[in-house]
Structures are given as C-alpha cells and as structure tokens.
What we know:
Mean pLDDT: 96
CATH topology: TIM Barrel
Order of helices and strands: EHEHHEHHEHEHEHHEEEHEH
Number of helices: 11
Protein name: Sugar phosphate isomerase/epimerase
Number of strands: 10
Number of domains: 1
Low-confidence stretches: none
Distance between the termini: 12 Å
CATH superfamily: Divalent-metal-dependent TIM barrel enzymes
CATH class: Alpha Beta
Largest sheet: 8 strands, parallel, barrel
Strand order of the largest sheet: 1-2-3-4-5-6-7-10
CATH architecture: Alpha-Beta Barrel
Structural class: alpha/beta
Strand content: 15-25%
Domain Xylose isomerase-like TIM barrel: 70-230
Helix content: 40-55%
GO molecular function, one term: isomerase activity
Pfam families: AP_endonuc_2
Keywords: Isomerase
Amino acid sequence: xxxxxxxxYGSRNWPLPDTLTMVKATGFSDVExxxxxxxxxxxxxxDLAAAGLSMxxxxxxxxxxxxxxxxxxxxxxxxxxxAVFAPYLDADDRPTNRAxxxxxxxxxxAAGKPLQDAGLTFGWHNHDFELVDLGDGTTPLGIIxxxxxxxxxxxxxxxxxxxxxxxxxxxxxxxxxxxxxHIKDVAPAGDCTDEDGWADVGYGTTDWAAIHxxxxxxxxxxxxxxxxxxxxxxxxxxxxxxxxxxx
Length: 247
C-alpha cells in the first residue's frame, strides 16, 4: 500500500490554516513540512491535529540540524514524523569535485546520527545538481548514498528529469535506499512558464506508469506530490491526487 502526502512548500504563498483545510478537503491525510514553516507555525502540531492531518516526513535544513539536533528530534516527535530529510545545499556551498562530495557525505552521516539514534530515518532530498557526472561516472547523489547503508534518499523525480536522466534508471540504481519519492511533473518546453515550468502531476511530460512500476519494484511506500510554484494550489492538489490514485 502506497501512502500519499502533500508537500506544503508548494502552498507557501497561501495562509497555513487555509492550506491545511484545502489539503484535507481534497482528500489527503498526510503532509510533508519544510524548514521555514516550522519557525512560522509554533502551533503546528495542534494545527495538524485540528485539521485531521499527519506529518510523517519533514524537510529540515542541514545547518539547523547540525546546530541543534535535539530541536529536530523534538519537532519530529511533536508532529509524529518518522523520517527527516535534509533538503538542499546553496550553490556557494556545493562541492566541486569528488573529494568534496565525499567529505559532504560524511558530514551528512554525522548530522543524521543523532536522529537515527533517536529512532528516526534520516536522508537526503535531491535536486538536479547532485545528478551531474563528476567525470568518472559517479554523481554526488551516488556518493551520498554510498556513504552509509542507513542514509536514505527522498528521490525527487522532477529534478531527475530536469537533470536529463531517465527516472527509471535512477530508481533502479538506488533501489531500496529510496525511502520516499517526490512525485513532481515537468511541463512541455515553453508551457507553464508562470509556474517555473512545472506541471500538475499527470499533466506534464513524465511517464508515470513506468516510474510507478519501478518505484513499486524498489519497495517505495510513500509518494509526496509536489509543485514548486503552482498559481492555484487547490487545482494542483486535486488534479495531482487524482492522478496518483490512478497509478
């Protein structure tokens, strides 16, 4: 059974109470949180409970995690999360060679250990920059995954497509190390320019039937629908949930 969540980042331009009401009314039971939201919503656990929603996974900034891992653990416990993913690395902070990425992977392992010791799953959420060939057939994401068998991945399939790779091949490469998949669609070239070129799930160019089969073969049991910049988040939520349920 595959669980389906809604990434709240896509609704950052709407008030949180309205978003939670919309998400629940659309048919979601689970949501995924993100870093900026936590500082803005001190009553998040109560807000989720009032809306009848759960937050089984969340994004938590690496710098914040390193500065105060207990705060991340406390937040995860408060909202009922079982997995925490570090989501991003600013361009100026990204390593430029294999040695740099290997050092970064060890940094991730160290940052995640307190969470893992507390019984949480920890991992990395990719964009496209971790999928660039470093010149020897390896990628930063491959280095991150190889750093520890306990390092899980939240594979963002929209960014895999944007990186010019075949999502099915990438899923087969990382297999059971993929804990969660971000289900994000890419619009045809020139379309949805006011939405940064992203599309509602099922309304873009992505071959979801093949991807879904590969994810199921890899044992992935949670899908998180996401759109980085929808101009109508209710439209995105309803159309995308219908698509994922049809897989």
